[in-house]
Amino acid sequence: MKELLELVPADVPIAVFLDYDGTLVAIRERPELARLHPKRKALLAGLGRRTLVGLVSGRPLDELRRMVGAAGIAYVGNHGMEIRKGGKTWVHPTAAGLAQRVARTTSAIRAKLDDLPGVMVEDKGLTASIHFRLASPRHRGTIRAIVAEEVRRSRGALILTEGKMVFEVRPNIPWDKGRGILKLMSLARCPKSCFPVYIGDDRTDEDAFRALADHGLTIHVGLARRTRARFRLRGVEQVWRFLAALEKRLGVSSGRRPGPGSSRGG
Prior knowledge:
By secondary structure, the chain is of the alpha/beta class. It contains 9 helices and 12 strands. β6 and β7 form a beta hairpin. The radius of gyration is 19 Å and the shape is globular. The two termini are 30 Å apart.
């Protein structure tokens, strides 16, 4: 922990980007149950008063804001396709134009999977998630085949990706969490000297690790595996210990001005 903190420079602005499920909260069988403790919301808000903090998730933007509810931080939903910062919302224009196509495909998938127990089809507006954590392992091949077939019917407009026990239907555009955080940094007018920290546990976080490969601190959460992240924390509790130590350090660092986009810095 101390070694990670020492890698965060004390003389330049920093930005902190955090995945939600599996990073700040344990993954739950039902996603709506993965909520933050009030004390942890307060820690995020405190960190957001000192520097730019962005929560980055595959969840839709409004749901992410509702689940977390911490003031003074930015929210990046739908794998970077929608961003809320300082009272303003940015939505990827091409993704917005494909929302109806996503809705039709999601409806078709839901109709075909309706009889399979343990499957939850989630329409997230710009994307869709097919959760199969509660489904029998013997049905997973069938679930994937059905989702893949409906995606093929979009004739290239949509793509299928995979996360932890979930299939994702997304617009076929060159956009991901990595591009989403770079967009947020642009919206927040982060200076070139800004040092980004990204913490995540999912396959989709690899895009962010890649985007920050040449600059910043990238941390994978979970068991050791092949990853583009440079460092690892074992689990959610270690993440919060790191964030608490970082917030304390930012509070006592002499001469450090508020980071880009912080609520204290405007």
